[in-house]
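User: I'll paste a sequence; please echo it back and then give the predicted structure.

Assistant: Echoing your sequence first, then the prediction.
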Amino acid sequence: MKKLFATNSENTTALLARLALGVVVFPHGAQKLLGWFGGYGFDGTMGFLTGTAGLPSIAALLVILIEFFGALFLIAGFATRIAAIGVIANFAGVVATSHLTSGFFMNWYAQPNKGEGLEYFILLFGLAIISLIAGGGRTSLDAAISKGLQIRERRSNTAIA
């Protein structure tokens, strides 16, 4: 448990990576869960993911929860490593099922019917891997939790001695 929250509370790179990732993923989750930003909300998204996309209900639910709550956890720096793993797993599934054959570029203008390429996902995975390795970094709840766990451990070691 201690290693899960461990992070360097002075690491600005970890802060920037988790904030960038969380801010980019959050609107996707808000579309799916709340219907914000032109999304279909929970019922519409569940219907699409289980019907058209053919996902099992539990997988569809996890997609919605990971994109919404995982993004919030990243922004707050809470359970950063778990959120990063969730984002990696979620978007690996997205890439494998929908984007792998679309090439590198987004293709919105040059080839509008070709689909979105991999460039967005490469950046997303890079930020998620940084968050996975570094944890929450500066101004994260992980840093506060880690500090609290260290203080508690020191107190218990002092009490034993």
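The chain has one domain: 2-160. The chain has a mean pLDDT of 91.
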